[in-house]
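Standup notes, structure subgroup. Blocker cleared on the iron/sulfur cluster input:
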Amino acid sequence: MFEGLRIQIVEPCRARCRWCGTWKRNPKFLKMKEDGAAEKIHSFYADAVRHFKPRVLYVSGGEPLLMEGIGSYMATLAPYVSKIHLFTSFQFSASTRERLDLEHMPWDKVVLTHTMAGFEPGRWDYMTRGFPFDVYVDNIRELSRHPWRKHFKFIVNNDTLPDEIRRFTDTVQPDDTFHFSLKLVNDHPGGIGRSLIEDTRHKIIQALNGLDMEGLDTRLTGEEVLRAQMNEGDGPSACPYRQEPKELRFALYTSGRAPKLKYRFCPHFPSNKHFIFKIGRDEMQTIRESFQSRRWHSWCSSCRLLEYVEGDS
Ligand code: SF4
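Run returned:
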């Protein structure tokens, strides 16, 4: 039913990125691993993948690459989807990298996916609260030696991005297993302005003209939503997420005897808006009914995507 399905693996993350608060839940992740809630949740995700058969599966965390058995777990989900985006921060030690449990990973379906916070030591240090830049770069280079597909997303929010892309291509020397795209990210609520986004994108495209860099997708994630809402002036009713079931996103809510997940149908609902699914009690059918009820359409008046670019229409 849903074109995309997003799951959140219960595995602590070693990164401390400034724009992400998920690592603050690490103690909770550990407790969920200890009390068996994590296993129930991962088993539920497998049921949901079999039930909805999305075209694309997005796997975030925590840090999914650090999960024991991640390769085998992905192999159980792969038959039901065409592609799996497996997100990683590349923030772990070299010895941890050597011990990643990638056996049985279905690399014909999996794309190693990463959102780049900055590829300049000073900016990186600030954005990650001091994770060593050289370790990060080594992890990218070492894991990129494999012929797996990789997808790197550059965050469009600063003027130095063209220089960072140049540094990245010089350092990593990406080949045709790499795909690149541009992204707005949730570190600019309050609005960075469409003119800055367009200006940055223009500079990136200009910079890339002089580089041997294939496979850059210069569309922004969420751009079709912005166009529908702003450029064509139809407001939320024109939003693609409301036209058809594009995405089902699960995120952890609470553990306990019947762990609960939050779920939503677009990435841009206000942060306090979601439905709740009680594992072991609710039926998968309730998710379909929630989508079809359209109750969530009222949340679009506080669409976060518009917040990112407000004040500059
Ligand atoms: S909050 Fe509503 S209008 Fe905004 S992207 Fe989501 S579904 Fe579309």
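Discussed briefly. The CA atoms of residues 16 and 129 lie 6 Å apart.
Next: hand off to the docking folks.
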